[in-house]
Design goal:
alpha+beta, Glutaredoxin, Nuclear Transport Factor 2, Chain: A, 3 domains, four-stranded antiparallel sheet, 16 helices, 9 strands, 45% helix, elongated, binds zinc ion
Length: 401
């Protein structure tokens, strides 16, 4: 059962390593001016649309639609904005992309900004393809192919609020009420350890393809994971909104305990800003999240640490703390390395208590150097920590070192 968690928990790893698609801004290709595009008219239409979205006025938004499908979409965007209590909402025409459909319709890039009041510290900003019709007086579509497309701009959705969390769910007929409970408890469990008052935003796209669009990720790259904590617009600048994104087909298969563990693990990443931190060893980022998520879970170690115990029995204890490269999502021993990382965090908590572990985690997120922080919080060197962790693993596996 817990092994099912492992691919789910990979999420942040992929994001924390450089070169991951969601973090990279891709500049739009240069375009040739066309005879069709009318930027001034499109800009005026977008100004009207922005006004409707800011006001949460679905009727006014819908009246800008090119056809019935577009009307459903534009009305939904206005409704979603109101339900999310969005602020800093802007739609600004940037340029045409060169794709035309007939003599009065074309696709352009639109710079969109938004922020969820009470949750996001700063605004998200994305350039999103939108197509215009009727010489720019109407909006036909938002998003194009695999281009990055936020959930709130992709169609009808439901927003549920619980203390400390907000869950945005695309309407696809599925019952998503349980997610609110998981999100609420995830916030409670995370805050109990790390404190703070920041709120959690969970986004549930309609399906896996929509998840990849929401993340701006290559199709397939997150198909096997249950949830991912990621910057909403791919930006890793401090203050960028970071939300938890769910992959419904995988998450919905988790049993309730595993679903809670995954949500709490992700909440720790999101609420502590771990996704935006740099130079923090992944064993600490992932091990700490698991420490919190598994802290109050009554499962035997044979379930939660079975893979690392098996490896220790077979090969002896690892020679060194897990390297960042071992968290590569395409690696073959991921479950083992997550369990190993969790046990490093547990070793630290045993040494200095939970408050020392939290202080150490926070110090590293704040940019402190590893060695001095380890010494300050635990009076240990890396060698001391490694030895204590190895002894712990040997003890769990019932072998001598
Ligand atoms: Zn993680």
């Amino acid at each position: 059962m817990i092994s099912r968690l492992i691919p789910a928990i990979l999420v942040v790893v992929a994001l924390a390593t450089a070169g991951c698609a969601p973090d990279e801004y891709v500049a739009p290709p240069p375009v040739q001016g066309s005879e069709v595009a009318d930027p001034a008219t499109a800009a005026t239409t977008l100004a009207s649309f922005q006004g409707a979205v800011v006001a949460g006025d679905a009727t006014v938004a819908g009246d800008l639609a090119a056809d019935d499908d577009a009307r459903v979409l534009l009305e939904a965007v206005a409704d979603n904005a109101r339900a999310l209590d969005l602020t800093d909402v802007t739609f600004r025409y940037v340029t045409e992309t060169g794709k035309t459909q007939g003599d009065d319709a074309w696709e352009g890039l639109v710079a969109v900004t938004w922020r969820i009041q009470g949750f996001d510290e700063a605004s998200a900003r994305l350039e999103i393809p939108m197509s215009f019709a009727d010489g720019g007086r109407r909006i036909a579509t938002i998003g194009s192919g695999p281009a990055r497309l936020p959930v709130w701009l992709s169609g009808p959705a439901t927003v549920r609020r619980v203390p400390g969390a907000l869950v945005l769910s695309s309407d696809n007929g599925a019952d998503r009420t349980a997610y609110s409970r998981w999100a609420r408890r995830a916030v409670e469990e995370a805050r109990e350890v790390v404190g703070g008052r920041a709120g959690l935003v969970v986004e549930i796209p309609s399906d896996t393809a929509a998840l990849h669009r929401a993340l701006g990720a290559d199709p397939g790259s997150y198909s096997a994971i249950a949830a991912v904590t990621a910057p909403v617009d791919g930006s890793r600048v401090k203050g960028s909104p970071v939300h938890v994104f769910v992959n419904p087909p995988v998450y919905d298969e988790l049993d309730p305990v595993a679903a809670q563990v995954v949500m709490t693990h992700e909440a720790v990443h999101a609420l502590t800003g771990a996704v935006l931190a740099r130079s923090v060893p992944l064993w600490l980022v992932e091990g700490f999240a698991d420490y919190v998520a598994l802290r109050d879970v009554a499962l035997p170690l044979s379930k939660t640490a079975g893979q690392i115990m098996k490896q220790v029995r077979r090969n002896g204890v690892p020679k060194s703390l897990p390297a960042d490269s071992e968290f590569n999502p395409s690696g073959t021993h991921l479950g083992t390395v997550y369990e190993a990382a969790w046990q490093v965090a547990a070793t630290l908590a045993d040494r200095g208590g939970e408050s020392a572990l939290v202080a150490f985690y926070r110090a590293l997120l704040a940019g402190k150097d590893f060695g001095p922080a380890l010494r300050t919080s635990f009076a240990w060197s890396t060698a001391d920590l490694t030895a204590a962790w190895q002894a712990r693993l040997a003890g769990l596996a019932g072998v001598s070192e």
